[in-house]
Amino acid sequence: MRPWLLLIGVAGLLAAASVDWPQWRGPHRDGVAEGFTEPKSWPEKLNQKWKVTVGEGHSSPVVADGRIYMHARQGDREVVLCLRPDNGQTIWQQSYEAPYTMNSAAVSHGKGVKSTPVVADGRVFTFGIAGTLSAFDAKTGKPAWRKEFGSPDFGVAMSPVFDRGLLIAHVGKQQGALTAFDAATGAEKWSWKGDGPAYASPIIVDLGGTRQVVTQSHSNIVGVSAASGELLWQIPFTTIYDQNIVTPALYRDTLIFSGLGKPLMGVKVLKRGDKWTTETVWQNKDFAMYMSSPVVSGDRLFGFSTRKRGQYFAVNPATGETLWTSDGRQSETAAVVAAGNLLFCLSNDADLIVARQDAKAFEPLHKYSVATSPTWAHPVLVDHGVLIKDATTLALWELP
Question: In the prediction, which pLDDT does 332 show?
């Protein structure tokens, strides 16, 4: 290939997806999209630029260094794909055997991948539904290392997090361990075995002068040292059917949690001397979150509650005061992404709602149908477009 043609091709890749979304819920794992510019007007319908079959599952796409990465199931194998953002064509693909027997209570969700990959330090890290933790070279797809663990009752849904050379994942079954691996080699660096995994994904926060991994485990909310795995604090926390799923959010020094049948709550983590304590500073019993996680944007917190058969809401994250609620019966669940002064809300019914953050009520600007099968994965905003993963395909819809 001529050098100038190669340069044009690389420029096209970067222009199509210049803003990275390299992990679960984005660059900072908080559901906030940076660098988004609101269009002057919105069309009545969105144009689908491309659509490709990638495989079964609810794993969200991730974007890094001008490439899209997907993890899904094709037949009896789990597949990792690297795609061009301008046309969806495959750059490389890897797969491995992934036998899995579903829990009868989760048949409707399929046995596709649920965990979202993370791209860091030149590698793609994936976590399969049966507990296969893998690392691949991001440029070539060459496998770097792989480990096999069991999975909780309804399959792995936790998305690993990368922090300072460590890949951190809650691995195993109900008696598993929150574990940090050397991201380059897969060697175990530390492990906390105080509780097994749930389905929530951890975040990394700095509180009380200590860098911490905060997550919902099988029966608790916990904070452990990101450097050593030492348990710092824990809050007993269980939900019906043992389904702790919600990814925590952070507002200044307040952690925000919820769960199925549990109120939305703000918690401060305090260190007094050499002891850690937690203090619940507010609760809002009007909202309970299940398979959706809260998003903090500025001085507002947005989310989707199971109350009233599905309801969007906004609260003051400092006090827990309700700012507004939508009508009920919106959908079974929805993913919320904040971008600029807008909210992008994708229901599992494939409706993408665009609404203003600073409105005094939930007032959608537009509602677009973006798939013909369920959309459980999070939407990902790229330059002038949004990536939508449905039951088996990935599509890029153009934004004005």
Answer: 96
Distance CA 242, CA 219 (A): 8
Locate 202 and state its tokens: 């951890």
Alpha carbon of 149 to those of 13, 128, 132, 155, 371: distances in Å? 36, 10, 6, 11, 33
Which amino acid, 363? E
What is the C-alpha to C-alpha distance for residues 355 and 365, in angstroms, rounded to an integer?
A: 5
- The model's pLDDT over 348-390, given as tens digits with 9 standing for 90+, comes to 999 999 999 999 999 999 999 999 999 999 999 999 999 999 9
In the block, which residue shows the tokens 């460590």?
A: 166
Q: How is domain 17-398 classified at the CATH fold level?
A: Methylamine Dehydrogenase; Chain H (2.130.10)
CB atoms within 10 A of CB 6: 10
Query: CB under 8 Å to 273, separation ≥6 — which residues?
Result: none
Q: What is the pLDDT of residue 16?
A: 44
Phi-psi label, residue 185: left if phi above 0, alpha if psi -120 to 50, beta otherwise: alpha
More confident residue, 102 or 257: 257
| Helices and strands counted in the chain (H then E) | 1, 33
Closest CA to 290 of 258, 313, 317, 266: 258
